[in-house]
Amino acid sequence: MQGFNKYYPPDYDPDKHTSLNAYRGKHALGDRARKIDQGILITRFELPFNIWCGTCNNHIGMGVRYNAEKKKIGNYYSTPIYSFRCKCHLCDGWFEIHTDPKNTRYVVVSGARQKDEEWDPEENGGFAVHDTEGKQSTEDPLAALEKSTAAQNHMNQVQVPRIEALQDLADHYGSDPYALSRKVRKRFREEKKVEKEKQAEDSELKGRYGLPEELKLARDSKETEEQDREEWRRAKRELEERESAKRRRLDVTRTIPVQPTKRLPSSSRIASAARSSSGQPSAAELLRARILGNTGRRKPTGS
Ligand SMILES: [Zn+2]
User: Fold this and answer.
1) C-beta contacts of 184-193 below 8 A and 24+ residues apart
2) Which of 98, 107, 68 is nearest to 80 (CA)?
3) Cα–Cα 20 to 30 A to 248, which of 28, 161, 230, 257?
């Protein structure tokens, strides 16, 4: 057992023992480091998937934890590959699981079988996933040569001219920044002046009609002016048509009292009482027709 406190015994010599753990002959990691001379550290390892033990053939569920012997067995680029050696809790068999940094997963190497529960998109209505890294192309020297030639051609015909064009453009704009800046600022000032005038006009208009500040006003142009004029003419024409139709209607109503028996066979009792027995319009009806005629005539002149 390694020391947990800082008690320094009387025979402890810092020059000789260097540390308390060394004085006691223990590793700082204690019992977990009992096989450290073989490069093995005991760690707690949790099964990342369901497996069947190869010795007792029992099913062991995902998430079962073991005191595994962890050992570095290699590298994938700079990422270490670790091996975890676990002893089955149902028998005395050992199984070994490695990390697989290339595919970011774990693989069972020996002593057990992994339950295949990989998600297959094709099986579940998705698209199949294919290995996009060509395997056979590297073995064919002619194909490799063709590929490199195509790449060379692409570089000469597409990439180099494009880079040169970009370089020319950069030279063109970078040659005289002062003159360019002056030109741009001059144009900006002119635009700003026009914009300011427009703004002043707008605010004046808004103030006159009590319109909200944030209202955006449409700009006048030849086209919109023409459209407005056209719209005005159309509206005027419509109004005139409406008026003339109304006048015609009024003329019709004015003629009704002349022959009331034909047009209104079952008119109201009041109307028939007001009418004289000979079929001639009464004085009240004549007056009504005259008033209606007057209003009908006055309307178009007033508009
Ligand atoms: Zn077992």
Assistant:
1) none
2) 98
3) 230
- Rounded to the nearest angstrom, the distance between the alpha carbon of 55 and the centre of ligand 1 is 5
Cβ burial 138-176 (10 Å sphere, 16+ → b, else e): eeeeeeeeeeeeeeeeeeeeeeeeeeeeeeeeeeeeeee
3-class secondary structure, 95: strand
For residue 40, the model assigns a pLDDT of 95
Name the strand (E) or helix (H) holding 42. strand 40-46
Question: Using CA atoms, how far apart are residues 60 and 47, in angstroms rounded to an integer?
Answer: 9
Which residue in 69, 104, 72, 67 sits closest to 84, CA to CA?
A: 69
So what's the pLDDT on residue 268? 46
Distance in Å, CA 82 to ligand 1 centroid:
22
Cα of 59 from ligand 1 centre, angstroms: 8
| Extents of the domains making up the chain | 35-114, 144-174, 185-219, 238-302
pLDDT of residue 272: 47
Q: What percent of the chain has pLDDT over 70?
A: 84
Of 241, 264, 254, 239, whose CA–CA distance to 287 is shortest?
254
Report the pLDDT averaged over residues 107-134. 79
- Residues sharing a CB contact under 8 Å with residue 203, sequence separation 6 or more, in sequence order: 213
Please report which helix (H) or strand (E) contains residue 110, including its range.
Answer: strand 105-110
CA of 31 to the centre of ligand 1 (A): 25
Residue 171 CA, ligand 1 centroid: distance in Å: 74
Inter-helix orientation angle 160-174/177-209, to 10° = 70
pLDDT > 70? residue 248: yes
- Return d(Cα 172, Cα 186) in angstroms, integer: 20
The band of 279, judged by pLDDT with boundaries at 50, 70 and 90, is: low
Per-residue pLDDT at 278: 52
